[in-house]
Amino acid sequence: MMNNKKEIKGISVLNPVRVDREIYLRSIDHAIKHGYNHIQLIGPIHDPVRGNVDGMVFYKKYSRFNSSKDADYVNHCIKVVNEALEKSHAAGIETYMWHHELDIPDGFCEAFPELLNEYGDVEVSHPILKDFLENKLKDFFETYPLMDGLVITYYETKVPLMRLKNQKLSTTERMKYVTQLLYDTCAKYGKKIIVRTDATLEEDYVTLLKVYEQVSTDMVIMDKWTQFDWSLTLPPNQFIRNVDKNPLLMETDLFGEYFGKGRLPLMIKEHIKENYYHCEKYFPCGYVSRIDRSGFYPWGEVNEVNLVIMHALMSGENVDEAIDLFFKGKYGKTADKVRAIMERTEDVVRKILFLNGYYFSELSRFPTLNHSKNHFYFEMMRENYCIASDEWFVPVGWKRGNIGKIFDEIESAKNDAAMLLQRVLALKDEIVEDEFADLYVKFRNLDLCARIWGEIVEVFFSYSRYMDGGEREYYSKLKKGLSRLLELEALGKEQLGEMFHCVIGDRLDGLVHNRDMISEFVRETEASLAYEERKNRELAKEGLTDYVICGGACEGHKLQKEVNFSDTLMRDGELCRIPGNRKGLEWSTINAHGWFSYEMNITPESDNLITVEAGSNTDTLCMKVTIGDSEHTVNAKCDGKAIVSFNYRSKPDEKRVRIRFEKISANVPCIYTVEVK
Question: pLDDT tens digit string along 393-405?
Answer without folding.
Answer: 888 888 999 999 9
